[in-house]
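Please review the protein record below. Let me know how this chain folds according to its tokens.
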Amino acid sequence: MNTENNTNTTRAVIFDMDGVLVDSYQAHFESWRQAARIHGLDMTEQQFAETFGRTSREIIDAIWGDLVSDELAEQWDDQKEIAYRELLAADFPEMNGAGQLLNMLDLAGFKLAVGSSGPPENVKLVLERLGSDLFSAAVTARDVTHGKPHPEVFLKAAAKLHVDPSRCAVVEDASAGIQAARSAGMTAIAITGTAPRELLSEQADLVIDSLAELSPELIDSLISDSTDR
């Protein structure tokens, strides 16, 4: 992590992980289907898309709540996440522009964090592939009581970074994540791929198609504009 003292050191970018830093849509969908099949069930892609970005337990409750006991849900959650990590480790799909953007932000003095609804084991795997030394903090599903769109995950990340929420930008792909960022009082940047552009445009300060479109200067200006409002 870059610790050079400059005017950007009190600003931060908090990244969601899935669909933002790693193109994990297919790995998540396939791992859910593998876990469901163990129990004689299945998940449609529509069900998956509608719940993407929520915690595993919230997804189980939303889709199969009447069929799955608390004990079985915990077991199912573990089975799904193990399958996900195996798929991701076999073929790591870094999002276009992720590595370059992280390095530019680090050099510009931004503090970086991940705020994810995934378990810590998943976050650890992704950060190791991208460069754990670039990140000052990570907040995972195990650290929060409320999933997105509740702002808890991003507020805890800002607290770990010791940066005021108004000086943080969040990069998210899901509508629930954008709502969480706005509720936290942060600048919200949406990347397309998971939710319709029209919906993201209604909620976010900026909508992009690739992380390659972002730069430290652009993010800095968005935070400044948001702070001035």
